[in-house]
Design a protein that fits this description.
By secondary structure, the protein is α+β, with helices and mostly antiparallel strands. It has one domain. Helices cover 25% and strands 40% of the residues. The protein contains six helices and nine strands; from the N terminus they run E-H-E-E-E-E-H-E-H-H-E-E-E-H-H. The protein has a nine-stranded antiparallel β-sheet with strand order 2-3-4-5-1-6-9-8-7. Strand 3 and strand 4 form a beta hairpin. The longest helix is centred in the C-terminal third of the chain and has 12 residues. The radius of gyration is 20 Å and the shape is globular.
Length: 211
């Protein structure tokens, strides 16, 4: 059974002005160095989008997305903290997203049935009990002033140009969600970002259940 992290990103939701975030802003505030910014890059009044060898950053009118590109250069939490501290942002929420992909030894039908089927659930036993059924799960809980939402889904990946199947796996999408009260300071959001590596550790502990 193989498993790996497919996605790590931190998303700010709110109201932003991309025009405020020119190349000099990121350099001046120590988010990136000038020679780290790769081409092509976009710095316009409507959108900012660039990448380094380690991260990509996109700023839209309603979102800021800091995405890890290189697994060996995991510093998106450091960038997110500096961004919060160095600018007057209208943030309404933050999401810390960690997605694992699990490739089971058995078929998706058999493995998801073994993992997630609740035979006491009347809906499953009456309507979803054939051999071709795939199962998933959704769970959530309060955590560190926010809410962890874990969505588990079987996935079949196909090539776009010819629709040929290329991979089957189970996606475990961890979303650590934190709302922001505008009447308060950014301490809750900063603490959430500072807990980034603890959230990764928790996701690793959960994934250890599956081999």
């Amino acid at each position: 059974m193989n498993k790996s992290i497919a996605v790590k990103n931190i998303v700010f939701v709110g109201f932003f002005q991309p025009s405020k975030f020119d190349k000099f802003f990121f350099i001046k505030n120590g988010l990136v160095k000038e020679d780290e910014i790769l081409e092509p890059s976009v710095f316009s009044p409507e959108v900012v989008q660039f990448r380094t060898t380690g991260v990509s950053i996109a700023i839209l009118l309603n979102q800021i997305i800091i995405h890890q590109v290189d697994i060996l250069q995991d510093r998106i939490d450091e960038i997110a903290q500096k961004l919060i501290q160095s600018s007057d942002l209208e943030i309404t929420a933050i999401g810390i997203n960690i997605t694992w992909n699990l490739s089971p030894d058995e078929s998706l039908e058999n493995s998801t049935k073994n993992f997630f089927l609740n035979e006491r659930n009347e809906m499953f036993s009456k309507f979803f009990n054939s051999d071709n059924v795939m199962y998933g799960a959704y769970v959530s809980k309060d955590i560190s002033g926010g809410r962890l939402k874990l969505e588990i889904k079987p996935q079949v990946s196909k090539r776009l140009h010819d629709n040929i199947e290329i991979a089957r796996f189970i996606s475990f999408a961890f979303n650590y969600h934190f709302d922001h009260d505008k009447s308060k300071n950014f301490d809750t959001l900063l603490n959430a970002v500072k807990n980034y590596k603890n959230f990764i550790k928790e996701s690793e502990e959960i994934m250890s259940i599956y081999g």
